[in-house]
Amino acid sequence: MAKKKRKVNTKRIAIVALIPVVCITLLIANFTSIRLSIKGYHKEDKKVVLKLEKEDIKDILQYDQIIDISKWDKVKNDAHYLLYDEYYRASKKSVKKVVYYIDSYYERMEDLNYLGYTKNVLFKNSDVYTISNMDTLISANVPYKKAKKYLAVKGAQIQDIKKYVDSGLSPLKAVLQVSYPGIDSSKKDSRSYTIENPEDTLILIKNGFSVPSDYVPKDLRDVNIPYETEVGQLRDEAATALEKMYKDGLKQGYSIAIKSSYRSYDTQLAVYNEYFAMYDAAYAASLVSIPGSSEHQCGLSVDLTSQSVMNGEYGTFGETPDYNWVEQNAYKYGFILRFPENTGDRTGATNEPWHFRYVGKEAAKEIHDKGWILEDYIEHHGFTYNLRLN
Fold first, then answer.
1. Higher model confidence: residue 83 or residue 28?
2. Is 353 exposed, middle or buried (0-12, 13-18, 19+ CB in 10 A)?
3. In 31, 79, 93, 279, which residue has its Cα 20 to 30 A from 61's Cα atom?
4. What is the pLDDT averaged over residues 289-318?
C-alpha cells in the first residue's frame, strides 16, 4: 500500500524563512542605536543623537569619550555636541560660553579651515582666537602657515597680522615695531595695553602698559630692612634680594632703607587726583603715572633712601655714598636703576636715582653690562608675556 504524501505547509515555511530576514532587518535598522547603547549612551541621549546627520553620528561613535548630551541641551544650541565636548575639555569654560564659541566658530569653520586654522590650533588658545579675531583672520586672508611664526611671538596682536607679514621683518621685530612703538615713550602711540600676566618679573609697566586695577601680587610680604615712614612691602623674590643687598651693604659701611615700595591701585589713584588738583594737567601728568601704570603696583619696585638721609646728614639719597654703592652693585642682586639720567624721553619718567626695579639677576646683569634701560632689553628680547589691546 503506497504511503500518503504529506501536505507541505508553504505558509509556515515562508514565515520561518522570514523570521531571520526580519531579525536582520531590525538589527540593521537599530544597529546605530545598539552601538550607542554599547558605548554607554542612555535612552534620552540616544534619541537626540539619532536625529543628527549621519556624519555627525559617525563622528560621535568614533569619539573616544561619552558626551553628556543633556548638559549642552540646558542652553539653546545648534547641536554641535562633539565640538562642544572637545572645546569644553580643552578650555574648561562654562556651558554657555562653550556653546556660544562653538556655534559662532562653526559658522566660520569652512573659511578658517581653508586658511589652515584648524580646531586644534584655535581651541588650544581660544582666549587669543576670539570670535572677533577669527573674523579678522578671515578678512586678512593670511594662511596660518605664514601667520604662525608671527602669532608665536609673545604679545602678537591678531589685528596686525597682515602688517606683520607685509613688513618683511623678522617675527619679533615685526611685532614690536608694528604693535608696540610705545615701548619707547618718545614715539607717540595712541594704543594702550593691559598686561595679561602681571606676575612676570620682566613686565614693562608705564603709561600705555598697565596692569588691571584689581591686581595685587599674591606673594607680597614685609621687607626686613629699615624704612622711613611705613613698613615696605615687595614680592617675596624681590624682598629676599633687597634684604641680602641691605646686609651686604652694612658689611661695607652702607645703610639703605625703604622710602616707598608697593602701592595699590587705590593709593595710586589718590595720589594721581591730588597732583591734578594741585597742578595744571600737563605738569601733573609729567610728575605722576596714570593709575595702573606705576611699577609700584607690581611689587617689584622700591624707592630707596638711607640712614644718612634720615639722620639729616644728606638731603637726598642720590647724593649719598650709599646711593653710589647701590647704583654700582644693585644688578648683582637682580635690581636695576629704572630711570637713569638722560633717558626720560624713552622711559617717560624723569631721573629718579632712588627708584630701583627688580628684574632678576640674569636680566639685571645684561642691562648693567650693556648700559641699557629696561626698554632696550624689551626691544632686544621681546615680551615674555601677552598683552591685551584696550
1. 83
2. buried
3. 93
4. 93
Burial class (CB in 10 A: 0-12, 13-18, 19+), 237: middle
**In which element (H, E) is residue 71 found?**
helix 69-72
Q: Are 361 and 333 in contact (CB under 8 A)?
A: yes
Q: What is the average pLDDT across 322-339?
A: 98
DSSP designation for 335: E
pTM of the model: 0.83
Q: Read out DSSP for 206-226?
A: BTTEE--TT---TTEEE-SS-
Q: Is the dihedral of CA 327, 332, 338, 344 positive or negative?
A: positive
Q: Which residues contact 61 (CB under 8 A, 6 or more apart)?
A: 32, 35, 36, 39
Residue 387 to residue 378: CA distance in whole angstroms: 13
Instruction: Name which residue leads in pLDDT, 13 or 269.
Output: 269
Helices (H), 152-280: 161-167, 171-179, 236-251, 265-278
What are phi and psi for residue 220, nearest 5 degrees? Answer: -60, 140
Domain ranges of the chain: 52-141, 145-171, 193-389
The pLDDT tens digits for 207-265 are 999 999 999 999 999 999 999 988 899 999 999 999 999 999 999 999 999 999 999 98
Q: Is the pLDDT of residue 21 over 90?
A: no
> Between 3.30.1380.10, 3.40.50.300, 1.10.10.10, 3.40.50.460, what CATH number should domain 193-389 receive?
3.30.1380.10
Strand, coil or helix: what is 305?
strand
